[in-house]
What does this fold into?
Amino acid sequence: MKFTQRLGFYLSGFAIGLIILMFFLNGKDASCDYGPNARTVKNISSKKFVYSGESLDFIRLHALDSNTVKNLIKFGSVDFSKSERELDSCKVYYIENSYKDRNMIIKVQNCNRIATIKFINYVDSE
It folds into this structure.
């Protein structure tokens, strides 16, 4: 069998496999979150949010809603140098993002079933 025939068989089988794979994964929430930031943010976003008193005060003062806070976490970047990942019970993460052209930091305590928003503030505010 010539090389071109083998290549043709290989490519046709590969194409059929891709079509079958697309059929099975169509409509599912399949994602490839391999980086530590993506895994951490996805883990936090999948849990129920509980807000501390300090974070609720900030949310009310700046007229934020829960969807805005969820999106700030979902699309934010985790500062692993400040985060406390070595804790046994609930790990604490600092997530940085920007909202209305101002940098924000969100402190999240990530437990087994809930994620507690401990602190939200603008970085450049005093």
Summary: Helices lie at 3-25, 36-45, 53-61, 66-74.
